[in-house]
Write a structure and sequence with these properties.
Blueprint (H helix, E strand, L loop, with lengths): L1 E3 L5 H14 L10 H9 L6 E7 L2 E13 L4 E11 L8 H16 L4 E3 L6 H9 L15 H8 L3
Parallel strand pairs: 4-5
Antiparallel strand pairs: 1-2, 2-3, 3-4
């Protein structure tokens, strides 16, 4: 079962974000706390949205996403920030169900893109995404400014 996350899901979303960071071999990068997640998902101006995958009433996965905008298409799209299914629940269709729900939202709202990033070494996920019809955007390279570089650029006069 896939459902929209509620405020009560904040602790389990936080726990699964930590699990995802461990899986991706960067546990120190996951610094968000529960209060930050609560504000982002359920504050006065939500910046992100989340869905929970459940199996027999227990949360086994989540998708956290936000809206982006295509200047070329002239409409919003969904950017999937995190998709995670706990190891013991993998292969049960939960990841596909989460992506299907996000695709449904896109179709329902007239959004023309559902996008996300995947680590180059994560072959099981790449194979899964490609089996659904997703295609890598090989001509694009993701860039990111964080920490000292972001501060240095953002404080230039």
């Amino acid at each position: 079962m896939i459902r929209a996350a509620t405020f009560a899901d904040i602790p389990v979303i936080h726990a699964m974000i930590r699990e995802l960071a461990e899986y991706e071999k960067v546990p120190d990068e996951a610094r968000a706390d529960e209060s930050q997640l609560a504000e982002a998902l359920f504050g006065e101006r939500p910046a992100a949205f989340a869905h929970i995958a459940e199996d027999r009433g227990l949360p086994v996965g989540f998708a956290l996403w936000f809206l982006n905008f295509s200047t070329w298409r002239g409409v919003h799209g969904i950017y999937l920030e995190d998709l995670y299914v706990r190891p013991e629940a993998r292969g049960g269709g939960h990841g596909k169900a989460l992506l299907t729900e996000l695709a449904r939202i896109c179709v329902e709202r007239g959004y023309e893109r559902l996008e996300w990033s995947v680590l180059n070494w994560n072959k099981p996920s790449i194979d899964f995404y490609e089996a659904l019809g997703a295609r890598a955007q090989g001509e694009w390279t993701v860039y990111r400014l964080t920490d000292r570089a972001l501060t240095a650029l953002g404080t230039r006069a």
